Amino acid sequence: MPPWKVENGRGQEFLQIPLLSSVSSSAGREKAGKIRETGKGSGGISIPVPEPPATASRQRAFPCGSTGRGDARMIKQMPGMALVALLLALAASAGAAEGEDLAGLRRHALELVNQARQAQGRAPLETGADLEKAAQSHARDMLKRHYYSHTSPEGDDVRDRYMEAGGSRWDLVEENIARCQNCGPPATAATVGQLQQGWMNSPHHRENILREGLRRFGFGIVVEAGGGLYAVQTFAGPGTSRGGGAEATSDALSGEALSGEALAAGAARMINEARAKEGVGKLQPSVALNTAAQALLPDPGSETISLGSSQQLRDAVPEDQRQRWRSLAVLAGACGGCGTQPTQADLRFFRQQWLNDPQHRQQLLDPVVTDIGFALQANGQGRKVALLVLGTAR
C-alpha cells in the first residue's frame, strides 16, 4: 500500500500519492519522506485523510520577560515600556472590575476582532462552538498544568484540539495565546480589551486576526488567584489558494475561479512550460484523459480519498479510447485550508509540489509520455484534490 507523503505548508498540508500502478506497469514504490499515515481499504488504494500539522500559530507573553514555549521565530515582544504599561493595565482591570460570564466575554472578544477586521476591509467572523471549546480547553489546561505553549506536554497542538472538538481536518486553523502571571479574578470586558490590544500590537498576532480565508472564531479565558490568567483566540476557515510568488504576481488571473476546461488547459500549459525548460517535448491535452481524471476524483463530502486500482484507472478512460494507450499513470495531490474555488494559483501550487518530488518530477518530465489529462475538485470547505493522468500513446 503506497503511503501519503506529507509536505508541510504554512497552515496547510499537501498530500502526494506515489505513482498509481499504470495499465502496463507495476504499482508505485514506497517513497522516502515523512510518512504520516498509510491507510487500508477495499477495492484498491483508499487512504484515510491524515491529520494535518498545526498551523503556524502565534503566541504573545504578557508576564514580565516571559515568552512561554512556542516557536521563537514567531514571537516579537512589544517595546519594554509599552509591555509594562499593558501588564499594569491588565492586572488592574482583572482585579477591580465586576465579573462577567464567559459568554459575555466571548461576545466582546468577537466584537473586537470583527471591528479590527472590518477596519481593514476583511469579512466579519462568526462564533464557532468547536473553536470556543478548543480555546477554552487549552486555556484551562495551561492553567491547570502550569505550562505556556501552543503544544501540550503530550504534543497536541491547535489542530488536534480543534478536531477533537469536532472541527474539520481540512480547515485552516490559527491560534493566538496570552498569559498574565500577575492577574487575578475576575476577568472582565476591560481585560478582553487589553488582550486584544496586545495581540493587535504584535505583527504576527495581528496577521492572524486579519487573515483572509477565515470564517469563524473562538475565545477562551481562565483566571485564578495565584495562578494567573490564560487567554486563547482560535480561528478557522477554508483559507485561500496557494501558489503565490513572482509568477502569480504577474498573472492577472491567478486568483480567479476557473472552470473544468480552463483548469485542464491551464494545467497542460504549466506542465509543458516545465518540460520546455528541460528540453522535453510538449504533451498534448487529451479530452479522454481529462474524463478519466474527473472520474477518479473522490466524493466531495468523503472523509477518505480513494483512487482505486489500475483496473479502475483503465476503466475511467472512455471505452473507445482504451486501446490507444501503451501506459497510463496518475499523479494526485490534496491540500487543506487552500480556498473554496479552483484557481490558476492552485495549478501552480500542485505543479511545484510534484516537481519538488524526485519520483513525480521524473514522471512529469519523462520524454516518453505523450498526453495529459487533469481535473481539480474544490469542496468549498478548504479541501482541494488534483489528479493528473499521463498517457503514452501506442
TrEMBL record:
Region (Disordered): 24-67
Compositional bias ranges of the Basic and acidic residues kind: 28-39
Family annotation (Gene3D superfamilies): CAP
InterPro entries: CAP_dom (IPR014044), CAP_sf (IPR035940)
Pfam families the record matches: CAP
Every SCP domain range: 110-235, 269-384
Protein name per UniProt: SCP domain-containing protein
Organism lineage: Bacteria, Pseudomonadati, Pseudomonadota, Alphaproteobacteria, Acetobacterales
